[in-house]
Amino acid sequence: MDAEAFRVQAHQVVDWIADYLASVGDRAVFPDIEPGWLRSRLPAHPPAEPESMDAVLTDFRELVVPAITHWNHPSFHAYFANSASGPGILGEMLAAALNANAMVWRASPAGTELEEVAVDWLREIVGLPPVFAGVINDTASTSTLVALAAAREAGALGDRPGRIYASVEAHSSVQKAGMVLGLGRDGVQAIPTDAEWRMQPQALADHVRADREAGVLPLAVVATLGTTSTTSVDPVAEIAEIAAAEQMWLHVDAAYAGPAAVLPELARHFVGWERADSIVVNPHKWLFTPMDCSVLFFRDPDRIRAAFSLTPEYLKTPEEGQGTNLMDYGVALGRRFRALKLWMVIRAFGVSGIEARIREHCRLARLFASWVADAPGWEVSAPVPFASVLFRWTGRGEDAASIDAANHAVLEGLNRSGTAFLSHTVLEGRTVLKLSVGNLRTTEADLARTWTALRDHAARP
Ligand SMILES: *Cc1c(COP(=O)(O)O)cnc(C)c1O
Question: Which pTM value belongs to this model?
Fold first, then answer.
């Protein structure tokens, strides 16, 4: 593809993107297709001869897009809703064009230094002290794995079994990190939660003491600020006390809720997180940055490097000890230029713009919760500290299993209709629905439509 052909195609692609973003709300959020739909429509074998970009883009529009669940749709409320902002998309486009690989400083000086700048800006935005440095990873799962690998290295396990603690509500990535780190099936101990799904610090202290007596080395504790099921907030200040007393690494998982620390009215949820050894915050979740972008903050870069630094001859450079070599902070050698989109998002929104959007999302979530709370036959199932609402239809006096089935039916009916897309979780054995507000395009009117649709589906026999 020469420069002129690229220019023509790129203009068409940009026009398509602009139209798509302007009209994504008119599409079905979920395409209502069955698994295998797309594969059955695409050739099983690669083309032997080159194909025209026109033909490829036609298939993109006619086959790929119809099989997309639209995370950019204003009525996407499943999991943790998010959205790709214009500035973030532009950053992603430019990063692809530069194709920079920031493994060592000289491989991409801008890729390296812009990452340091963007991470430092995010640190300031969420109110963490300057002692924290950080890197950008693909996902929180990777960030948590890196942090816990550093914790294991710092723990100097030797032959002893080591253990990591996290609440029963912690994200599955913590357990997965324990598996990858070879800590065994019991490597991650689940700590019970209180009536509002927050880790019980006393239970943590008890487990740690019992483990020490049994010859198990407590390596790390993960406190979650904004758990995946209920967005509950672990008492991180108390957990930090225990971590300090027991010389355990404290990792804070704020993958979802971290950006909300920008709001003074929510700062109380984050008191004590500045005592962590590492913290993960995902700009691709609630900071308008396209997939993927996860920031891992850490207090002591040496401890991360101790777990990951290894420099073969072919990667030695004259800048040793001057420029940062990002390859020293994780598993991957090659690194995408993710900082560009984050830097562009932060500049284009400004801190005030970020605050305003997150505040509005929290307002919309509280508003939705108030509609649910006021409606007969519905209940809000958990507190709403951020912008996700857990709720359920309580039915017409049927037994628990029928009510659970009815909630699944409401969810599936709504999702299949394409009007809105929600997800579910299980709390204390009962099915509950989850509506997360995190999309830049979601308005109060969109939310009201979704609420009407939910009640319509619940009213069906
Ligand atoms: C989403 C989420 C994760 C996992 O995030 P990925 O970036 O998809 O790996 C981890 N922890 C919490 C609390 C989350 O909400």
Answer: 0.96
